[in-house]
Amino acid sequence: MANLFTSFTLWLIIVLCTQTMHAMPLWPGGRSTRFYDFKLQTMKITKLCNTRDIVTVNGMYPGPVVYAQEDDRVIIRVTNQSPYNATIHWHGVRQRLSCWSDGPSYITQCPIQTGQTYTYEFTMLQQKGTFLWHAHFSWLRGTVYGAIVVYPKTGVPYPFKFPYEEHIIILGEYWLRDLVQLEQATLASGGGPPPADAFTINGHPGPKYNCSSNDVYTISVVPGKTYLLRLINAALNMENFFAIANHKLTIVEADAEYTKPFTTDRVMLGPGQTLNVLVTADQPIAQYSMGMGPYMSARNVPFQNITSIAYFQYLGATANSLALPAPLPSFNDNLAVKTVMDGLKSLNSVNVPKEIDTNLFITIGINVQKCKSKMSPQSCQGINGGVMAASMNNISFIKPNISLLEAYYKKINGYYTEDFPGVPLKFYDFVNGAPNNIPNDTSSLNGTRIKVLEYGTRVQLILQDTGTVTTENHPIHLHGYSFYVVGFGTGNYNPQTANLNLVDPPYMNTIGVPVGGWAAIRFVADNPGVWFMHCHLEIHLSWGLSVAFIVKNGVGELETLPHPPADLPRPSTFPAEKRKELFNSSPGKASCSNEYSTNSSGKAANFLSEVIGLVLPMLLEILIWARCFAWEACIHPLHHLEGSSIDIEVREAIATFSTITF
Ligand SMILES: [Cu+2]
Q1: Signal peptide location in the record (predicted)?
Q2: Which of 286, 424, 470, 585 is an S-S bond match for 299, by CB 3.0 to 4.6 Å?
């Protein structure tokens, strides 16, 4: 009997190892697997004297923290129990050979419908630091966001003195409105969105807002100790300054890559950007304000101007002692932004591509399209009675109604064209001489135009802000890659005078292209798939300020995108007539189901995929647990989700890690 048991155990181990090795031949370092269970659900919340429903993950706002270590495999099962379609994007995760898990809706997958489950899987291959995850459907990410904290491998120290404690600080915006409806209403109006009702720090507006004197985030600090703050901007439509009264911030990491230490009084983060800063509690015992305020570089755009305040409170200070105000720059202080950007350098010399195969010049800006005769004035509330838009190289991106990745992978024609221009259609003085006869000559062309790159292409992008309508700092985010920011400046890019840093430029995933200026970025296109590049101001994304790159497969398994996972949300199987009625798409064409929410016929049509979606994750989970048992290399998936994770002291998290066998 014992022999039989031993044989069975050996057989099981061999089967599991073979299965695992077959599934993950590329990530030998990924010895641990982190398993998370995300349930998208609505939750009642009271803020600013109003109670309303917001969409959350696991009833937490901000959502749970995903903890991992460099090279870990991360598996996150997302079940959509909210009334909206949804996807989750793992911002900054380079998704090596896992484009199917990237998450932007209509780019790499159809949305997960109400009642459906999709399991995201990726490896934090050679990545560590502070990231964020957020919804990537409509404007759901306004409440559906959280941090990803990836620690170095066991035994590998930080390149700075180990902090006494670490804290996650997520900047956000809060609306007293349903965000999916807000996007729809804004687009239907043709005009701009209303400003947020509040800024928030870890979900708390702070004492300057109505009914919020107790809705304040506080960090208690010990005099003399040094703290690591993991700053994340998850705001929807604003870039933001952050500062702490009387305290210096030393930046040591930007977009999850180490930087040379740079000390400053304040920082600016665009949505999607992260900064790790060290702060030493070296001031007299008191309560100090941590402030989040607006950075608005565009002209004539209304914005929230009340500072969100949190407290940096010394032990021994009385809770009701007056907090010293945080010294935030004025909302249009471009110099403050430049000063921080100038200070960002990679910690060490880096391997920047010196020669370039593909050089693209991409203008970014706002447009106003003409009100069409059949449109009512209610639909044309943009500037001068036009319809607001935004574009790259004057092309406003129209999202397709199936995922581009699926269309590309399965060679389904008719959803995109491969003619995104590598240079603007017209050259002019982009910053000072931009067209301004609104909307007669500021229109953009609409299209789903993408750019194809061969595997291994060394790419340089010049991102040039334009003055159509208004110049503005745009936080441009590239999926699937980090890129070297080799240069930036004000005015028009000029290759003769541009001063490029090819030694130690920062390695980022989101670059705030300076207002009325340019940025030059470089990367090697060595990750096959379809990768979105877009402005991370959500309204600009809705208006079309985006493009997608197809990066083709290279040679062999290590350069080839694997098959899609079985539970990938798929285009619907509606009969052609029904599809025409529901989505107004041509008969015979596949389509992701109902764009904004699921209806009963949608559910019925997707019954089979739901069954597959339920059974396959269960099988997967059994395999994972069996593997954990065999290798003793896992922790219980739900351990991370207990309590309000945003307030978990990171020391506790480290203690959790020490119990794991690596
Ligand atoms: Cu933008």
Answers
A1: 1-23
A2: 470
- 82-106 tens-digit pLDDT: 999 999 999 999 999 999 999 999 9
> What domains sit in the chain, N to C, each tagged with a CATH number?
2-152+607-658 (2.60.40.420), 165-343 (2.60.40.420), 358-558 (2.60.40.420), 571-605 (no CATH)
| Cα–Cα distance measured from residue 375 to residue 189, given in angstroms and rounded to the nearest whole number | 10
- CA 601 to chain centroid, in Å, comes to 32
Cα–Cα–Cα angle for 206, 211, 212, rounded to 5 degrees: 15
Ligand 1 centroid to Cα of residue 545, in Å, is 7
Phi, psi of 125 (to 5 degrees): -65, 115
Q: What is the dihedral of CA 534, 258, 336, 342, to 10 degrees?
A: -90
Neighbouring residues of 574: CB distance < 8 A, sequence distance ≥ 6: 582, 591, 593, 601, 602, 605
Q: How many whole angstroms separate alpha carbon 133 and alpha carbon 146?
A: 5
Q: How confident is the model at residue 9 (pLDDT cuts 50, 70, 90)?
A: low
Specify the amino acid at residue 342: D
Q: Are strands 445-447 and 457-465 parallel, antiparallel or unpaired?
A: unpaired
- Protein residues placing their CB within 5 Å of the ion ligand 1: 474, 535, 537, 540
pTM above 0.70, yes or no: yes
